[in-house]
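The following record pairs a protein chain with its ligand, pyridoxal-5'-phosphate.
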Amino acid sequence: MAQTGKGLRPATQLVHGATMRSQFGEMSEALFLTQGFAYESMETAEERFKGTKPGFIYARYSNPTVAMFEERMCLLEGAEAARATASGMAAVTAAVMGQVRAGDHVVAAKALFGSCLYIIEDLLPRFGVATTLVDGGDLDQWRAAMRPNTKVCFFESPTNPALEVYDIAGIAKIAHAGGATVVVDNVFATPMFQRPLELGADVVVYSATKHVDGHGRCLGGILLCSQAMMDLHFQNYLRQTGPALSPFNAWVMLKSLESLPVRVAHQTKSAGII
Ligand SMILES: Cc1ncc(COP(=O)(O)O)c(C=O)c1O
């Protein structure tokens, strides 16, 4: 299987990036509806399970169609690593829960999508993680909310539904000075208009259900970050807890990415007129 991508323009990456062609040379990405994978030998199986040899093991860990979606999103976002999830909320939950343990503290903007607010206000305190909500646009409030045990600063920008826009670089500076990481829910902007990793964020999450699918068909999400953060916080969490994206939904998302630049540009133009 051959892989393409780096160096292409974003609009081209969204059509051709990270395509893995099978021996049949298919034009459109193949839909691999398989949970498991065959091994040439017991030794190969052992090496794959140990991680010393690349290859697919089980679809809760990865799948070729899902991997193409993840790789294409990495190209678009400028990220080293990505894991696709069954919904945007699965990505948000993993991005926060994967990094904290009892005794830690999380700061978040109070203008959050309802389910994101549930994670911060209800779920985290149940597991001994304290949380503080701030006005996301006020850097002094972020600064004042930081504690020695603050591990994560989390916000959406623009927010859903009020469309408040925050200073990602400013918040990242405050978070990093206090030893915390920054998780940005970038669903509204899409990577076409905002790339939070370039502004200092450590983790970017999407509800792919929104602009990535863009046709109201499939639920999905994705979490993107550095390879080091993926290895440290998320890889094992996602493998063991199992919010994997279905290969069918990944295939739909891959096809939708082809038209993402055209769709979001037109939506933005229409919204401006309205
Ligand atoms: C900002 C934001 N984050 C997360 C989500 C959750 O995504 P999903 O519905 O795909 O779980 C949504 C929308 O539902 C959203 O608008």
